[in-house]
Specification:
The protein is an alpha/beta fold and 353 residues long. The chain contains eleven helices and twelve strands. The relative contact order is 0.12.
Length: 353
């Protein structure tokens, strides 16, 4: 009897050892499979473990409006970078309409792009759209017009306030001790860039009490600048200069001066000092011809390129960016108007090909 019990105990011990060994082999297989799955899930576009790539990523690009030379260059330079990295970009033209852009953002979010590169019409009104995109885990990158809130990842643009300040100082120096009226050709009220340029200009003009500012709300449009400038010369007989929030509106101002017989060139007696913003091909040509005194360069090429480069870096694994990057304005006049590095000259050369 003792012998039988001993044999049974030995058999149970052996069975337990065998079952335990089988269980160990199963666990090892499960762990190995889990490890393989983890490696597979970390593969990027190239299939290499841990590698990420912008190739094939879909980027929505809502723009303020493509009716301006500046915005065309911004768009072209951004798309060149996207093409370099193999990203798929879809452009949306808001035509300077904040409500239309908000509707476009709703449609964009519904399609779930991998990222949004945004040039906003109104930096404040667009905030709810930005936050809605983030709730869907769509990163938002800003370019050009300042975004005034919301959960955007990074923004690269222009120091619009400083541009207004520099325009005021330029005009004050150009007219010297003369007293008179300065016309401000204002961009769209509510558009962030227009508001900041106007604020900088008017704040700085307070330092020059011999000059009085009269603001014309032209909404970026040359035709409105034309009619409003004609009316202003009827109402004010002492106009000595004009600041335009973009070079495009100066096209209307120049036409108005011709109609009035006040189109004296730079250096001639009776010349109306004119400075704009952007440094467009048309503005640069007017500077060469002595029609326009200067423009404040807003580097559309640099902004578009850097904005899309940050999108590409994000897809490559970079997640930390400077929140706001402002490219400073610089004066373009007869001394540097032929600089081949100016975006306006680059665009003009492209158009000749």
């Amino acid at each position: 009897m003792k012998k039988t019990v001993g044999s049974l105990a030995a058999m149970i011990l052996m069975a337990t050892t065998v079952l335990s060994g089988c269980g160990s082999g199963s666990d090892q297989k499960q762990q190995s499979a889990a490890a393989t799955s983890a490696v597979d899930s970390s593969k990027g576009e190239s299939g290499a473990a841990g590698e990420k790539s912008p190739k094939g990523k879909k980027v929505a690009f809502p723009l303020m409006g493509l009716g301006f030379e500046f915005m065309v260059m911004l768009n072209d330079s951004a798309k060149e970078v996207a093409d370099k990295y193999g990203m798929d970009v879809k452009v949306f033209d808001a035509n300077v309409d904040a409500n239309k852009q908000a509707e476009q953002m709703q449609s964009i979010i519904a399609t779930q792009p991998d990222a949004i590169l945004l040039s906003s019409v109104d930096g404040e009104l667009i905030v709810p759209s930005i936050d809605a995109a983030r709730k869907k885990n769509i990163p938002v990158f800003g370019v050009e017009s300042k975004i005034l809130g919301g959960d955007y990842l990074t923004w690269v643009g222009y120091d619009n306030y400083k541009a207004g300040v520099m325009a005021a100082d330029y005009i004050a120096k150009a007219v010297g001790d003369a007293k008179g009226t300065v016309l401000e050709q204002r961009g769209l009220v509510g558009a962030t860039g227009a508001d900041l340029r106007s604020s900088g200009f008017n704040d700085q003009m307070e330092k020059y009490p011999n000059l009085k500012v009269v603001t014309l709300n032209n909404e970026w449009v040359a035709d409105k600048a034309f009619s409003n400038t004609l009316d202003a010369f009827t109402a004010h007989k002492d106009i000595v200069a004009t600041f335009s929030a973009n070079d495009e509106m100066l096209r209307g101002v120049v036409s108005a001066l011709k109609k009035l017989g006040r189109d004296k060139k730079v250096g001639e007696n009776g010349h109306i000092v004119m400075i704009g913003v952007d440094g467009t091909p048309t503005g640069l040509q007017r500077i060469r011809e002595g029609v326009q005194d200067a423009s404040l360069n807003q580097d559309a090429k640099a902004m578009g390129s850097e904005g899309m480069e940050r999108v590409a870096k994000y897809f490559s694994g970079e997640t930390r960016f400077e929140r706001d990057t402002m490219i400073p304005p610089s004066i373009i006049d007869k001394n540097n108007v032929d600089d081949p590095n100016l975006w306006g000259n680059i665009m003009a050369q492209k158009s000749k090909k």
